[in-house]
Amino acid sequence: MMVFDRVKADIFVSSLRDAYQEKLGEDHIDFPDQPFAGDTIKEGGVDVFYPITQNICDAQPDMVLFAGRARDLRVFLEALSERSCRNDPISVLYGEVGLFPWTDDETMTLLEIGNITLLSAAGTDPRWARNEVPAQRDSPSSTPPTASW
Q: What pLDDT tens digit does each residue of the chain (149 aa) get?
């Protein structure tokens, strides 16, 4: 299932949505797309995502492709951690042009209590700067599929 920011003026978000559609499209996206308006997140918080989390619980996809900004992802993860079907595990794929913004305890707790695996693809990996893992040449960074990375 794809969850995307429908604000067309955001080229990053619209190109990420297009890439998901082009690469995975008909063969892998089995459920209707779930749009949200990223501009309303500031005012509505997790309530913006309430209908989407209900649809996720009804459809029971094993993965959500998230096409939105990092600030919206944070709110989406919070909403997912409160969904009624959180006993069912779910993975969220997120692409970013910079560093993944959070590895803090609060985010890790959201992932754990929400039974969420977050897969992040980024152009860089913060662990490279700390020499925790070697930089990968000519391949995108991908965090391991775990809530405790």
A: 999 998 878 888 899 999 988 988 777 788 989 999 886 666 777 888 999 999 999 999 999 999 998 888 989 999 999 999 999 999 999 887 765 556 678 888 999 999 999 988 766 666 667 777 776 654 444 444 333 33
Task: Return the structure tokens found at 124.
Answer: 């860089």
DSSP the chain: -EEEE--TT-HHHHHHHHHHHHHHHHHH--S--EEE-GGGHHHHGGGGGHHHHHHHHHH--SEEEEES-HHHHHHHHHHHHT-TTTTS-EEEEEEESS-----SHHHHHHHHHTTEEEEEEES--HHHHTTSSPPPTTS-EE--SSTT-
Q: What topology is assigned to 2-142 in CATH?
A: Rossmann fold (3.40.50)
Tell me how crowded residue 100 is: count the other CB atoms within 10 A of its CB: 20
Domain spans of the chain?
A: 2-142
- pTM (predicted TM-score): 0.79
